[in-house]
Amino acid sequence: MSTFTSVNGPSIIEAGLPPTDDIQARTASEIFGSRTLSWLNISQQLDGEQATAFREYVQGRKALDKDTANQVGEIVKNWALRHGATHYAHWFFPLTGTPAEKHDALLSIRSTADGEIVPMEALPGSRLIQGEPDASSFPSGGLRATHTARGYTIWDPQTPLIIREEGGARTLIVTCAYVSYKGHALDLKTPLLRALSALDREGTRFVNLVRGTDGARTLKAVLGCEQEYFLVDDHHVAGRPDLIQANRTLLGLLPAKQQQLEDQYFGPIPARIQAYMADVEEELYRLGVPVKTRHNEVAPSQYEIAPIHEEVSVACDHNALMMDVLKRTALRHGLVCLLHEKPFAGINGSGKHNNWSMCTQDGLNLLDPGSNEDDHFLFAASLSAVLLALHQHAGVLRVTVASSGNDHRLGANEAPPPIISAYLGEAIHELAEALEKGEGLSLRAGQIQAITDRLSVTLDATDRNRTAPFAFTGNKFEFRAVGSTQNPAWPMTILNAAVADAMAQLSGRLEQKLASGGDRKSAVLELVREVLAETKQVRFEGNGYAPEWVEEAARRGLPIYQDTPAALGVLLSHEATGFLTRLGVLSEEELHSRYEIFAERYLKDLDIEAATLGRIATTQIVPALERQVGLTGEAVAHLSRASHERLARKLELLGDLTEKLLAGAEALEEARGTLFAGEVGAGLLSAREQVKPALTTLREACDASEATVSAELWPLPTYLDMLFPV
Asked: Which pLDDT band holds residue 21 (cuts at 50, 70, 90)?
């Protein structure tokens, strides 16, 4: 249970209040980062020359010499031992969609001159910095042959080291990139780091050109991920083969009450869930993850946790860590954390809203409109770069949110549609319109509005649009289309690379304008006006759910990919992905590998779902129908002909449902056999045209059976059981 209380002001003891039995007088800030070791902490323990060498290594300017590396390893080892760690693990993100780790003991041995074996703990710098897990069983999409299995993990010191505790064991976790023997990226982190380097390079050039100074030395992207999730009792999950195997329910009737009363959203958090959340937060605080917000979400048994913004690479690592802690902690509370985008049909799915912005080394946020004309000037230039990135690379951004799970979510119940567009809001839209017309930099500010004679509210300059996939929200953009189970590194790789590419283009255009004479401000405003006109098609201020939007988006020429099979082909288009190779983010081979890997994952997801639903139908629901037939038949036999008419019709219905289930399971199994019968492209087509319709048909028969079979005979925990625990 939680061992701290997060309070503002003095602690319980300082305030003169007696501590209770279950609350210790410790604040979140007192335990924050207590199980982390940053590269700055390490640097402070090195001498002058070694500290300088280590800083240069962290900044990517110089390789680390052996002596300094070993000293760093010694510092890390001693810190880990003080925290009770017995092993260390390189933690990395292969293209399986889940983190991977290989544990090695800190224990080592050495032999004395007379042959005595001396046990000791050791962590040489070479082992800390680089590891070599076997790559043969991780997906590579053709980047390596089966018989060439070597892969390398490389420590990313920007993310702090942590001590993770589970099952009474403590392990030093070293966050790493992961590459093949030939240097190909086999993971999610490596391309992200490349994209962030490109953004830094092109972004500083662009900002300094716009401002006419060299004040921007670095440009960093920052990110905060709102994480949605469901919690279900573990004994209910144990009775649902679909949740165990496919991570979502493949059948199930909605109860009479769902979310239509809108009483779950921001409602009181149940005590059991509050205890779970407190434990999650305490663990994350100790691991240096700055979680800030917790609340009930819209759907029953759905919740959200959100952190304070961090640099993108660290934020992505921390989100992966957050998902791990959410799942591990749930088990200790008799719960299962469901991160799937649509674990229950008919109610809200779960997303991971990526709140993204950019700032210089002194904290200047490029996407903050500011309060004066100078602020508006830089903001307008930065906004034009983001809109150009979105306009030119919307198709590739769409691929980053394509998955079998997200296909069920996008466009339904507050999730944005699968058409990438930008929402600016009234004030910024007015600014863009004015700039496009050459009318200057006037920006309408928020206003104070009286609510009663005692209360007033400060209105933001712009409203929110929950149907927009890429919405401006005051001083950042919110990429709302990202799925809840995804590692945000993939969408963030493409977004940051797209903006870097746009800034490179705009820098070149601005340099041409400046070379032809005229003042800088006029040149920048002329460039902004041009870009706003060029990218007008990607700006949409309306309702993304309106059916008219699909028609309008098509008229505008926006890419429309309704599902994953349609979207994945973009990765094979050099015209669409060429900017990634130009920037050095992903090579042609790496892009093609991702097409193969993501397509294969999609097919495997559907294959697992089809096999699971077929077995549930034939081995659990058909037997329940047969038992119901027996009971109903007995009732019919004991009643007079005049009084069993409705029961006779029910008996006939039960027979029809049994036939539909058996026929549906047979058809689904036949369709399933086509997924891997040919090339990947043929499998994707089969998934859309055969497997998904067969899944829907069999589910409908299963759900009709649930509505007919006695509750006592129904073999599975129901939606009512799972979503509304007593």
From this structure: very low
Residue from 550, 567, 517 nearest 402 by CA? 567
Q: Hey, is 337 helix, strand or coil? A: strand
Task: Report the percent of the chain where pLDDT is more than 70.
Answer: 94
Rounded Cα distance between 391 and 503, Å, is 13
Q: Angle at CA 55, nearest 5°, toward 52 and 58? A: 155
Nearest Cα neighbor of 394 from 565, 148, 560, 186 is 560
Question: What is 221-259 written as a DSSP string?
Answer: EEEEEEEEEEEEEHHHHHT-HHHHHHSS-SS-PPPS-SS
Q: Give 647 or 620, the one with higher predicted confidence.
A: 620
- List, as one string, the DSSP characters of 163-208: EEEETTEEEEEEEEEEEETT--B-BSHHHHHHHHHHHHHHHHHHHH
Distance CA 200, CA 206 (A): 10
Rounded to an integer, what distance in angstroms lies between the CA atom of residue 363 and that of residue 448?
28
**pLDDT per position as a tens digit, 653-692:** 999 999 999 999 999 999 999 999 989 999 999 999 999 9
3-state secondary structure (DSSP) of residue 232:
strand
Tell whether the model's pLDDT for residue 347 goes beyond 90: yes
Strand partners, 305: 227, 294
DSSP letter, residue 439: -
**CA separation for the pair 380, 518 (Å, rounded):** 19
Work out the pLDDT band at 364, boundaries 50, 70, 90: very high
Give yes or no for residue 7 having a pLDDT over 50. Answer: no
Take residue 413 and report the two structure tokens written for it.
Answer: 């119940």
Q: Is residue 664 helix, strand or coil?
A: helix
- Tell me the C-alpha to C-alpha distance, in Å, between residue 390 and each of 356, 395, 397: 14, 9, 8
Tokens 């746009």 belong to 502
Structure tokens given for 323: 């998902």
pLDDT band with cut points at 50, 70 and 90 for residue 446: low
The residue written with tokens 């001083």 in the block is 475
User: If you write DSSP's letter for every residue of 51-107 in order, what string do you get?
Assistant: HHHHHHHHTTSSPPPHHHHHHHHHHHHHHHHHTT--EEEEEE-BTTSS-EEEEEESE
List of domains in the chain: 32-187 (3.10.20.70), 194-251+261-586 (3.30.590.10), 602-723 (1.20.120.1560)
**Residues 552-594: tens digit of each pLDDT:** 999 999 999 999 999 999 999 999 999 999 999 999 999 999 9
Question: What are the DSSP E strand ranges found in 343-464?
Answer: 352-360, 422-423, 448-450, 456-458
Residue closest to 84 by CA, chosen among 286, 257, 311, 219: 286
**CA angle 411–403–688, rounded 5-degree value:** 80
End-to-end CA distance of the chain: 22
Residue ranges in 516-617 assigned as alpha helix (H) = 520-534, 547-556, 564-568, 574-582, 588-616
| CA 464, chain centre distance (Å) | 21
Q: Are 305 and 217 in contact (CB under 8 A)?
A: no
Residue range 161-210, pLDDT digits in tens:
999 999 899 999 999 999 998 899 999 999 999 999 999 999 999 999 99
- d(CA 259, CA 262) in angstroms, rounded, equals 5
Is residue 644 predicted with pLDDT exceeding 80? Answer: no
- Cβ neighbour number for residue 233 with a 10 Å cutoff: 19
CB neighbourhood size of 520 (10 A)? 15
